[in-house]
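Async update (no meeting this week)

Hi team, since we skipped the sync, here's where things stand on the single-chain job. The sequence we agreed to prioritize is pasted below, unchanged from the tracker. I ran it this morning and attached the output directly underneath so nobody has to dig for it. Comments welcome in thread, and please keep replies under the output.
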Amino acid sequence: MSTIKTVAERAGVSLKTVSRVFSAPDTVSEAMRTRVLQAAAELDFIPDRRAQAMRSGRSGVIGLLTDVAASTPCSIDIVRGVEEALAERDMSLLIGSMENRAESSDSILRSFRAVRVEGVIYAATYHREIHDFAPLRLPSVMVNCFSHSRDLPTVIPDEEGGGFSVGVHLIGLGHRRIAYLTLSPNIEATQLRLAGLRRALRQAGIDEPQNLAVPGQSRAGAFDREEAFVAARRLLDRPDRPTAVFCGNDEMAMQVYHAADELSLAIPRDLSVVGFDDHRLFSEGLRPALTTVALPYVRMGNVAVGMLLDGKTELPAPERRLIEGPLIVRQSTGSPPKMDVAT
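Output:
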């Protein structure tokens, strides 16, 4: 079995030099690093991170605490973003999920402390306030959520900017009768996106349509397809039917497609539809492909790692980073029917 001693002998250097190559590579010349790493590769040597942690006081591990399983689209992309940023720093990730578990975040955080994680990232299913997260003195950053006391650094999507970009896009195509079929009215994202849409209308000098925001979901955190379909069908059956519908997420947009089909409305000839998320299963699978705002989960994971490890968690006023999500224009949006084009 290869050890640090056999690597040192193969490379013809001291034990201290080998240790520095793996624990503090910036303190060793590039030529020396190459020499040691080549010897380690030839001997199939893998450094013992536990021993390194005991010597340096650093584990090289970050804990990710999430309220959903790592198989959901949201968490997959946040995890990917975190892992990309950690790989650049030669660090590892430990994931703890509270879904279907009896213990609280407190017990998972204690297990994180037992393995000496260097910090914790808390990632939520959807943009919301968290009431029960106490980081137990571990450096922490919240992603897609914020603490009730607003005392922790936060990385969240620019929801208002997303709503604004949708409004600008639809107004630019000529739409005036726009409806916003929302997720639960009680969640942060719903109100922020509505504020962005209203800002776009104001800037264009357009009066806000009556019943601009129409709930398509009553409960937060659980999507009900039937409820969304009924709301979409009712919306499209109105005498003053909108020419464009902005949806709270891509799955809701799919229900708008179904309702439009029942009413023999063609997308985008008779109705333009915009989603939110860029959940590829829906946005690229629908025909026509769905115009939607991409939630920047990968970028949010990248930024959270930087905030956690670059010392920004100690700021007197916790930093709040808004990450822009781009509007992805596909084939579900176009000009309104000629009779509805404003003159």
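Quick observations from my side:
The longest strand covers residues 120-130.
The CA atoms of residues 153 and 319 lie 5 Å apart.
Reply here if anything looks off.
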